[in-house]
Amino acid sequence: MPDPLERPDLWVVARLLEALTEGGNRMKRTPLQMATGVNYTVFTRYLAWMTLRGLVEVTPASDGASWVTLTPRGAAAYRYLREGIDRLVGSPRSEPRRDPRLP
């Protein structure tokens, strides 16, 4: 299968992995797509790319929809991306650093 993305945006990959992590490691496709805020065409390309790399697994549901499940490799990738983003731009979970010279 050809690579669906030549150069993926790692911010989008991180958002997809984060939504899955916060969703209990398993979500249906449409809620996952809506949680990440990308259009359906972009979402399907990223989902295919992530599946090829073993970050997620897609399985059919009994109602005709599909479940997307985070794999252990995907969970490790999310932690790695989260740590890198936190180091680069700061953690959104922490207070901004104050300049000690300011009152």
Strand order of the largest sheet: 1-3-2
Cα shape: globular
Reported for the largest beta sheet, the result is: 3 strands, antiparallel
What order do the helices and strands follow? HEHHEEH
Structural class: alpha+beta
Question: CATH class of one domain, please?
Answer: Mainly Alpha
Q: If you compute it from the alpha carbons, what radius of gyration comes out, rounded to the nearest whole angstrom?
A: 16 Å
The portion of residues assigned to helices is 40-55%
Number of strands: 3
CATH-assigned homologous superfamily of one domain: Winged helix-like DNA-binding domain superfamily/Winged helix DNA-binding domain
Mean of all residue-level pLDDT scores: 87
List descriptors.
alpha+beta, Arc Repressor Mutant, subunit A, three-stranded antiparallel sheet
In short:
With 103 residues, this protein is an alpha+beta fold. It has helices spanning 10-22, 29-36, 40-52, 72-89, and strands spanning 26-28, 56-60, 66-70.
Describe the structure.
- This protein is of the alpha+beta class and 103 residues long.
- It has a domain at 1-71: Arc Repressor Mutant, subunit A (Orthogonal Bundle).
- The chain has four helices and three strands, in the order H-E-H-H-E-E-H.
- It has a three-stranded antiparallel sheet.
- A hairpin with a 5-residue loop joins strand 2 and strand 3.
- The longest helix is centred in the last third of the chain and has 18 residues, at 72-89.
- It is globular, with a radius of gyration of 16 Å.
- The N and C termini lie far apart (59 Å).
- 17% of the residues are buried.
- The model has no long low-confidence stretch (mean pLDDT 87).
